[in-house]
Amino acid sequence: MALQWKNYCEIADALNEAYPDKALKDMENAELIRLVRSLPDFKDASEPDETVLSAIWNRWVYVAYPEG
Amino acid sequence: MAEKRTEFESLGGNNLDGIGGNAKKITYTAEDGTKKSIQIDCGMKFSDKALTGVDNYIAPLECDDLLITHAHADHIAGIIHHIQMNPERPLNIYADKFTHEFMFAEMANQGLPLDNMPVFHDVKDGEKFNVNGFEIEPVPVTHSAPGAVAFVVESPDGTRLMDMGDFKTTPAELGKGWEDSRMAEVFAKGIDVCFCDSTSTTSKEVTPSYEAVTKGFKKILYDNPDAQMMVGTIARSAQQMMADVIAVAEYAKETGTKPRTFILDGASLIQVDNALKKAGLSMTKACYERTGVHVNIIDAKNPEARKVPPQERIYMVTGTQGEEMAAMARVARGENRNIRPSRDCPNLCVNQQAVIPAGDNQSLVDDMMASLRDRGWKTMIPERGAPFVEGETYYVSGHGRAGDMEKVADIAAKNSPADRRCTFIGIHGDETQTRATEEIFQSKGEKVEHITNAQKIVVSKGTVQVSPTIGKASRIAVIDDNDDFMNPDFRYIKQAFNPVSKKWEDVKKIDYEKILVSKNDRGGKGGKKGHKHHDMNPAFMQKMQNGR
User: Fold this and answer.
1) Would A3 be classed as within a structural domain?
2) Which end of chain A is more exposed for a tag (fewer CB within 10 A), N or C?
3) In this predicted structure, which of B181-195, B262-276, B488-502 has the lowest mean pLDDT?
4) Would you call B538 an interface residue with chain A, using a CB distance cutoff of 8 Å?
């Protein structure tokens, strides 16, 4: 499935698979955008807004770290 | 022609049987009979599942405009359910920036579609705003969650109500908190009815400050200078975490040693750290401004974490209540890749949260602490309700005790206009606690009234009365585990999810004999890959109920 920005849960899962050991604390938006665009299934040329980036980052943290 | 009036209705939180599910509705009725309403909070109440078969209850959401006092589950956790039940519902949420960021993170964790997210409005001290005809003034208070506020709500007829939220009367470590002078200003303008957090008012004196935690934690540092440390915390109660950071800075200054490094492991810790930064409450920055010491706070996945000598590490982890998949339980099982006991120095685990008396917490925590000891960790855990000992206590509650209520009464008595005395009402507590709160105010010569869930306080022509009739019962049961629903208390439950029809229905119409709820019946994208975790599974519920 081609991923778009709005598919934030699927993007987070794909990021977690591609970068399982990535430290997420203090990640800049530019770095997050770069990593998302590096995903082979990601096909969306539009620019993401702050809300979608925040959703991707939070969801990635949720799947990547122990629960709390 | 109707008589114009302002009503406050307890939709949840004033329970006969335990704490939680906080929700309050304020309604103004004009002379032509038209009504306008807003709601404050929409929380979860924790069930004694062994008796009822109900995982938890959520409070009703009766308004589209919602004020949120702070980011604890018993004030916010109902909202996600309501959005899932009615995704198209337009919802405006008014809260402090930290609360907003934390709520957004919780909604993203549960996979809520972006189109269904509520519209968040940040509120700030000193900035009044209007919602649906009501003028709202947020007033900072101190609670374990940063960003906690009381709300003063002025109705179109001039009635002024104050919901204190969860509070205590000592200073906050992070962000704005309780100030006597600020509260004096509020009472000086006149408050007709004040609703007070009652959770801890059966305890005497004033709840100790976070400064006390700093002293207690510093003693642990002095007693264990060479130990690798792991500290269990509830992430969203970040005031206590900040007290630990200050302790590390002060210890380093006093001993001339390098400050220890905090290493965070646990999703909610990373998310709370981010929410704090977005709210302008960076712990590192706040600590430096206060002590002149830079304390490093890094991520357990950061390669730098392994380079920190064990004696300089403080792992800050989630899972104080023995949650199975949290960082501390994983350490106890030897499954946490980031945290292992050191062979070169002693290892100390400080579980900095007393056991919350809910569900199976006590046995889970006992088992976890025993496993940690088997793996070479010395363990410490505070006892719930233990007396405060200066320099020894390293955990404090965020709720005010009797002494805090006396302080509020004194401020009100000294500052309220003579012709506008306040009536005090206990909320957020069981029957014993809310009555204890009211007795304190009464003993100080203040007016009091008493309500339970679904009762209303009616303010009209300057008089304050409790409605003579009880409104509809209003809890909503959440039953998502593979359990039979055994003995619902129909006095309180309005709706429950029926997994057979896959609809939320009137609880009295559901045939519970036939119910065996599948974990996946409610669907949604809440699943955590590789785990059985979904939007309302038991692990999530335990996390939510522990996040008070």
Assistant:
1) no
2) N
3) B488-502
4) no
pTM of the model: 0.89
pLDDT at B473: 46
Check CB contact under 8 Å for A68 and B543.
yes
Name which of B114, B317, B529 is nearest A6 (Cβ-Cβ): B114
Structure tokens at B179: 């100030």
The torsion defined by the Cα of B74, B324, B98 and B354, in degrees rounded to 10, comes to 60
CA distance A30 to chain B (A): 16
Hey, where are the domains in chain B? 5-206+398-466, 210-380
C-alpha dist (Å) from residue B26 to B67, B381, B404: 11, 41, 26
Fold of B210-380: Rossmann fold (3.40.50)
| Measured CA angle at A45 (ends A43, A51), to 5 deg | 95
Residue B547 above 60 pLDDT? no
Closest CB to A51 among B114, B277, B300:
B114
Which pLDDT belongs to residue B55? 66
**How many CB atoms neighbour CB B469 within 10 A?**
7
Structure tokens at B515: 């119910």
> Does the residue A1 lie in any domain?
no
Q: How far apart are CA B433 and CA B447, in angstroms?
A: 17
Q: Write the CATH number of the domain with boundaries B5-206+398-466.
A: 3.60.15.10
CB atoms B336 and A9 under 8 Å: no
* ipTM of predicted complex: 0.97
> Structural domain of residue A60, as residue ranges?
8-64
Provide the mean pLDDT of chain B. 87
Calpha distance B544→B546 (Å, rounded): 5
Residue of A nearest to B547 (CA): A68
pLDDT band at B489 (very low <50, low <70, confident <90, very high): very low
End-to-end CA distance of chain A: give it in Å, rounded: 31
**Do B77 and B44 touch, CB atoms closer than 8 A?**
yes
Q: Does A8 touch chain B (CB under 8 A)?
A: yes
Q: Does B323 touch chain A (CB under 8 A)?
A: yes
Q: What are phi and psi of B202, to 5 degrees?
A: -80, -10
SS3 B545: helix
Domain-located, residue A2: no
Structural domain total, chain A: 1
